[in-house]
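Students often ask why we bother encoding 3D structure as a string. The short answer is that it lets us treat folding as translation between two languages. Here is a chain of 160 residues written in the first language.
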Amino acid sequence: MRTDLITREGFDKLTKELNYLWREYRPEITQKVTWAASLGDRSENADYKENKRLLRQIDSRIRFLRKRLEVLRVVEYSPVQDGKVFFGAWVEIENDAGEIRKFRIVGPDEIYGRNDYISIDSPMARALLKKEVDSEVLVKTPTGEHLWFVTEISYQGAIE
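And here it is in the second language, the structure alphabet:
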């Protein structure tokens, strides 16, 4: 199951990607396809084939983004959240071995390309929700159960 929540930053990033693909990148590739098609025989025209393939990928991503942006719900920060872990929180946790992890809990559409973001749908995020600083958190993962302690919570940017 995929949660339809997203942070304002994530929503703006996806919107920016959609606008770039639709207004800049797609017209550029369309122009290349037109140029390659004008050269004649398309069966052995590598430029034509490659750019048509690229155009299909762009169109597929545009369709996905348009549909996804319609159903996503932007979750804004609220001062009521302070002191507890909720969507959008930067969290620092530590285990008994002294291993420290820092990450932000975000929507599943935001985690790609970021090592410091985890999905709200992940076992770790689900276990952390509504916890406070100094809380013990038992996380059930495919590799077993792991005990973590919440050491810091912030909603105002990454924890240093």
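Translate back mentally: Helices lie at 8-37, 46-71, 123-128. Keep this in mind for the problem set.
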